[in-house]
Amino acid sequence: MELQQNKKVKLITKSQQFVLASSSQTRIRIAMEIFQNIKTVKHKIDEESEKQKNKKKSARKQAEILARKKVESIKNDFPNQIIIASDQILECGGKVISKPKNIKEAARNIAYLTGKNHKLYSAICVFDQQKLFFQESKMAEIHFKKISQKEINGYLYKNKETALNSVGSYKIEDNYKYNFMQVISGDLETITGFPLNNFLTQLGNKKI
Question: Which of 45, 63, 140, 180 has its Cα between 20 and 30 A from that of 72?
Fold first, then answer.
């Protein structure tokens, strides 16, 4: 965004109360860096149940549905605020990979991804005063290099919390150290699961 638009976004984020419907530490950290007046609240949906209900839909559509349902689950609690929610779905070989329930499952996830390309679909949904203000989904494609079980175990031993809180059981931020992944297409905000830039552009155009 241009400098003038950046200033306008900062002004809006200072005067307007934003609510982030998320318990993701990554999204909370990013939101805290951008928004001057942000409240974080856990959404009220069961993500795995919603995925099961919509498993016949495309991975992109699943991400879009989940992001919107997260916003809708708390919109009545914050009728006058701007509510933001995001979701990310990982698809590899036609299979959706979810956050692992334990380290063994994380190891299976990474073993499945190694040597393959996978796609990350990240969606954002924003309501302003209980009405849809912005929604978007973006896709990134990543190649996970072939690594050994020993390397998988070593990564998980040092990054247990990361693995248990990531759809692919990894974080792209760790790649500078491990060099496991190659980004084929897509930007960082899509890979991290919080595509904010186009929303911020629209917010910058909003009349104050």
Answer: 140
* % of the chain surpassing 90 pLDDT: 78
The residue ranges of every structural domain in the chain are 3-204
* Helices and strands in the chain: count of H runs, count of E runs: 10, 7
Q: CATH number of 3-204: 3.40.630.30, 3.40.1060.10, 3.20.20.70, 3.90.950.10?
A: 3.90.950.10
Nearest to 104 by CA among 65, 69, 36, 153: 153
- Alpha-carbon span 197 to 201, nearest angstrom: 6
Of 190, 200, 94, 182, the closest CA to residue 145 belongs to 182
The pLDDT assigned to 16 comes to: 81
- Which of 193, 133, 191, 177 lies closest to 12 in space, CA to CA? 133
Whether the predicted model's global pTM rises above the 0.85 cut = yes
